């Protein structure tokens, strides 16, 4: 059977592929510590489990409108107003099977093959993979510590810019001043934007601001994506939504119809329950404690450069001082120490590694981090 050229040249996401390898090793009876991806040790909020259980046991589960039940979209409009200062209408909201579906549909609706898309590096691999599937030209720009007018002025003409705020994997949270500069640049250049705010609740020190809260998002062509996966420990629920100009959302619905139609009624019930379950203070406090523990363990290591993340479930580490290939480093670490990490190459930055710190218990977290440090020390010693 002939496979199409557009998919034959594509590869599975490195992040999910590594996690799949670890799962296979575990099925074969091997003990592996998996830091390659962030899967919360918390359960979904009680309200989510209760509401979905009640619906599954007692309610008829009908089809809903492709973009989501009107009542849910109206409720999400309330969430956007209260928490993100985004004024929207129900028809400007679309409910999706997680953030990835919203990303794909928004990029499909807002671009044509050959268009240029700007992506900051390091990047969530789905941004690049989706752009390639859609035949887009990607311009990679190194993520700055602070976004400045000078940097924005160096960017090339583009159809779309993708912003991840809070940022995966560095944990950077963009300040309001930075977003104001970006808004001005979008207005001057006519470039649209997709803003992924999936980690909006996982904040440790800096407040989160939505780019669309400035009020010109319709005119500027900004689509903002939200997800319950990380913010509410609901990875397997596949629960997300997006808000954008009505014509863009309508186009996304046109695409979503033949792909999946609406998310399941159970997913939609979970979506409403999650986004109105209150702030996940206990979850964030636990994650912050884990982050601080990892920073205490890694900061003294001479061959590591670690910046404390302001958000998210990952530690992003510069290991260029080891002078080794980070793909080979991660492969050897998995084979010899049974610890999985994500090489920065998969996120556009060789010489770096990404490590999730929210899975398993504290003892396992300590054990895995200690194994990584010991392994790197061996390499560092051998290179002398």
TrEMBL record:
GO molecular function: pyridoxal phosphate binding; transaminase activity
Domain of life: Bacteria
InterPro entries per UniProt: Aminotransferase_I/II_large, AspAT/PAT-like, PyrdxlP-dep_Trfase, PyrdxlP-dep_Trfase_major
UniProt xrefs under Gene3D superfamilies: Type I PLP-dependent aspartate aminotransferase-like (Major domain)
GO biological process, one term: amino acid metabolic process
Cofactor dependence: pyridoxal 5'-phosphate
UniProt keyword annotation of Flavoprotein present: no
A Pfam entry, by short name: Aminotran_1_2
Sorted UniProt keywords: Aminotransferase, Pyridoxal phosphate, Transferase
Occurrences of domain Aminotransferase class I/classII large (ranges): 31-358
Nucleotide-binding listed as a keyword: no
Family listed: Belongs to the class-I pyridoxal-phosphate-dependent aminotransferase family.
Name recorded for this polypeptide: Aminotransferase class I/II-fold pyridoxal phosphate-dependent enzyme
């Amino acid at each position: 059977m002939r496979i199409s050229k557009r998919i034959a040249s594509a590869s599975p996401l490195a992040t999910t592929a590594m996690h799949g390898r670890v799962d296979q090793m575990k099925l074969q009876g091997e003990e592996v510590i998996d830091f390659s991806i962030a899967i919360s040790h918390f359960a979904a909020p009680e309200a989510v489990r209760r509401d979905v259980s009640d619906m599954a046991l007692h309610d008829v589960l009908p089809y809903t409108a492709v973009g989501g039940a009107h009542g849910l979209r109206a409720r999400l409009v309330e969430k956007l107003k209260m928490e993100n200062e985004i004024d929207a209408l129900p028809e400007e909201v679309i409910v999706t099977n997680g953030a990835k579906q919203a990303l794909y549909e928004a990029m499909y609706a807002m671009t044509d093959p050959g268009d240029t898309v700007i992506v900051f590096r390091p990047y969530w691999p789905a941004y690049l993979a989706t752009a390639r599937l859609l035949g887009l030209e990607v311009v990679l720009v190194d993520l700055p510590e602070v976004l400045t007018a000078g940097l924005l002025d160096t960017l090339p003409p583009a159809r779309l810019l993708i912003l991840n705020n809070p940022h995966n994997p560095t944990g950077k949270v963009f300040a309001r001043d930075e977003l104001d500069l970006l808004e001005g640049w979008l207005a001057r250049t006519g470039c649209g934007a997709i803003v992924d705010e999936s980690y909006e609740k996982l904040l440790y020190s800096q407040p989160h601001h939505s780019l669309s809260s400035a009020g010109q998002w319709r005119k500027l062509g900004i689509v903002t994506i939200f997800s319950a996966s990380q913010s509410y420990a609901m990875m397997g629920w596949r629960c997300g939504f997006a808000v954008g100009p009505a014509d863009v959302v309508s186009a996304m619905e046109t695409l979503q119809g033949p792909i999946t139609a609406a998310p399941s009624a159970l997913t939609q019930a979970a979506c409403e329950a999650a986004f109105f379950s209150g702030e996940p203070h206990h979850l964030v406090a636990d994650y912050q404690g884990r982050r601080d523990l990892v920073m205490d363990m890694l900061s003294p290591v001479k061959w590591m450069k670690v910046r404390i993340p302001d958000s998210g479930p990952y530690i992003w580490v510069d290991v260029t001082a080891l002078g080794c290939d980070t793909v080979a480093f991660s492969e050897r670490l998995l084979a010899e120490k049974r610890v999985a990490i994500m090489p920065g190459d998969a996120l556009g930055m060789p010489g770096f590694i990404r490590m999730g710190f929210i899975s398993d218990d504290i003892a396992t977290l300590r054990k895995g981090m200690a194994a990584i440090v010991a392994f790197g020390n061996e390499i560092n010693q051998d290179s002398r």
